[in-house]
Write a structure and sequence with these properties.
3-stranded antiparallel beta sheet; single chain; mainly beta; about 70 residues; 3 strands; 1 helix
Length: about 70
């Protein structure tokens, strides 16, 4: 299970997103869509622990996460 609670990330003084919350259970499938610059990659990087986030919590319970970056 992946639990995201009140997560906020800002870059250069502007929030990409603020206080988002959701839960993904084992076996769930989800799509992450939005315009360029809306924070999709930043959210995934925060979940992977590759970038810092400003507020909120990310809790990963007994899950293995794979991530393929846009640019190699």
């Amino acid at each position: 299970m992946i639990i995201i609670k009140n997560l906020s990330i800002h870059i250069s003084g502007d929030y990409l997103f603020e206080k988002i919350s959701f839960v993904l259970h084992k076996g769930d499938r989800f799509g992450l869509v939005g315009p360029n610059g809306s924070g999709k990659s930043s959210l995934l990087k925060a979940i992977m622990g590759q970038i810092e986030y400003d507020n909120g919590t990310i809790k990963i319970e007994s899950e293995r996460i794979g991530y393929l970056p846009q640019e190699i």
